[in-house]
Specification:
globular; 65% helix; UraD-like; mainly alpha; single chain
């Protein structure tokens, strides 16, 4: 494998199911050794922000619903599974699960992508409060907020893979 292929294999999933971000960061010459979480994050965020609106929407849509059907079926990526479990979303009561399901459906209908939040350090109540607040946002504000959350998730994932830098 080439250095590019190794890089994409290692970091292509940092932006959920969107290896094109890692490919573009590498191809733009933004990746420097030694690799650090902050350095790789800056490079990948640069490329994410340069992506077209449709491409960024695709990245948002690649994220799973919180506590949704993929979680129940055990089909989340390892990163998403660990992140949701860390926030207790794998241990919801029937009432909590129903609330998440209803919010997921309403949010996705309104915005066209799933609710995205960096769950590290948050609990179910924090996430539900953010959900209920953000569903009142307008489309432009929420697209921007969701993109910022994707960038935060990417940093948190990189911090588990690389020294901070």
């Amino acid at each position: 494998m080439s250095a590019r292929e190794d890089f994409v294999a290692a970091f292509g999933g940092v932006f959920e199911h969107s290896p094109f971000i890692a490919e573009r960061a590498y191809d733009a010459g933004l990746i420097f050794v030694p690799l650090t979480a902050k350095g790789v994050h800056a490079a990948m965020v640069s490329e994410f922000r340069k992506a077209s609106g449709d491409e960024r929407l695709g990245v948002l849509r690649a994220h799973p619903d919180l506590a949704g059907k993929l979680a129940i079926a055990g089909e989340l990526t390892q990163d998403s599974r660990q992140e949701q479990a860390g926030a207790g979303l794998d241990r919801l009561s029937a009432d909590e699960h129903a609330r998440f399901t209803a919010l997921n459906a309403a949010y996705t209908t309104k915005f066209g992508f799933p609710f995205i939040i960096a769950v590290k350090g948050l609990n179910r109540d924090d996430i539900l409060a953010a959900f209920e607040t953000r569903i009142g946002n307008d489309a432009e504000e929420e697209f921007s907020t969701a993109c910022a959350q994707v960038e935060r998730i990417a940093l948190l994932r990189l911090l588990t893979l690389l020294p901070e830098g």
